[in-house]
Amino acid sequence: MDYEDPIQLLPGLAVAREGGFNSIVIIGNTFSEKTLGLLVANNRPDRMNIAAVKIAGWGSEEQAMVLNELAMLTGGKPFLRAAGNNLAGIRVEYYGKARRVWADTTSFGIVGGKGDPKLLRQHIANLKQVYDEVEDVVRRVKIQEQIGKLMGGTATLWVGGLTEREVKSRIKLAERGGVAIRGSLQEGVVPGGGVALLACSQIFAEQMKHSMNVEERLSCRILFEALTEPFRQLVYNAGYKPEEVMADLRGAGTHMGFDVVSGRIVDMVQAGIVDSARVIRSAVYLGISAAAEVLTIDVLVHPARQPELSAILTPGKVKKI
Questions:
Q1: For residues 38 and 28, is the Cβ–Cβ distance under 8 A?
Q2: Tens digit of each residue's pLDDT (9 = 90 or more) over 144-173
Q3: Is the model's pLDDT at 1 over the cut of 80?
Q4: Nearest to residue 193, comparing CAs of 282, 255, 118?
Q5: Given a cut of 80, is residue 210 above it in pLDDT?
Q6: Could you tell me how far CA 237 lies from the centroid of its own chain?
Q7: Cβ atoms within 10 A of the Cβ of 67, count?
Q8: Rounded to 5 degrees, what angle do the CA atoms 110, 116, 121 make?
Q9: For residue 23, which of 49, 114, 310, 312 is within the disulfide window of CB 3.0 to 4.6 Å?
Q10: Where residue 321 falls among pLDDT bands split at 50, 70, 90?
Q11: How far apart (Å, rounded) are the C-alpha atoms in residues 128 and 122?
Q12: Chosen CATH of 191-320 out of 3.40.470.10, 1.10.560.10, 3.40.50.150, 2.40.110.10
């Protein structure tokens, strides 16, 4: 709502005092100087702390959505000007509650909202369904941010560096990490170190054996090689022979992979070596899309094949546990 006239807030402040609240946060679209003066005059730490914050979002539709979600988080009732609401008939049960609310000059947050958990979980489930159906990238990012805020997980990350370029680079890495974490919260994780893709490659290996079509076998072969390459490259970069490691992995069981740091075959999930399922899926989609585009190109330029690592380094030994 727009609080241009300070008289609009008097019923809300009176009910808050009668309800015994020692702190109150008023969220609105605009606050006039007279309204802010009234709030400052009534802001007494010994009786009642008062804070006024501006609602987030662009446009009335997005702001109404934010107010509704804040009401879900705190168990309150949103007052919308478009719906003809005003504070004249406000009651104590309309106030939302939270364990802590903080605000500064640029943002505000709610910790430990007292809203209905069941209603909030249902709303989050609806947002996840919308996310799966929406194709627009910008819209998907906004829905992701909504889900992250409603699920209550918050963190402040301070990024620094010696130069401005280094700071910007680290900020980009932090943003990508945030996207991966949100994706993990929504869609879960899979065994890392290329193990998930390696397991998927076996499907195409079996299909190659039973297919009688030459083109189908060739397609399966390409996908098989592509899905096994991340694991091979990780092992190769660590100074081990991929063929030896893959031979030791055969029959090792689900989730088993190679820890390049310890040089051992371990359960990747128990060892905490995991990847975001969404990130892996996106990488596969992008790879297939790039391959389809390559098929339309007449000439490709690529770097020369690198020498075998065995000619440069002495491979380590694989240990089993």
A1: no
A2: 778 877 876 566 778 888 899 999 999 998
A3: no
A4: 255
A5: yes
A6: 29
A7: 22
A8: 90
A9: 49
A10: very low
A11: 10
A12: 1.10.560.10
- Do 35 and 1 contact (CB within 8 A), yes or no? no
State the DSSP code for 303.
P
Compute CA distances 241 → 200, 224, 263, 273, 315, whole Å.
Answer: 21, 19, 11, 20, 6
Exposed / middle / buried, residue 311 (Cβ in 10 Å: 0-12, 13-18, 19+): exposed
Positions of CATH 1.10.560.10 in the chain: 191-320
27-63 pLDDT tens trace: 877 778 888 887 888 777 777 788 888 877 776 777 7
Round to whole Å and give the CA distance between 86 and 160: 46
Contact 318, 264 (CB under 8 A): yes
Token output for 191: 């065994």
Could you say which architecture CATH assigns to the domain 2-114? 3-Layer(bba) Sandwich (3.50)
Say how far apart CA 212 and CA 218 lie, in whole Å.
Answer: 11
**Around Cβ 101, how many Cβ atoms within 10 Å?**
21
Q: Token pair 């990490």 is at which residue?
A: 177
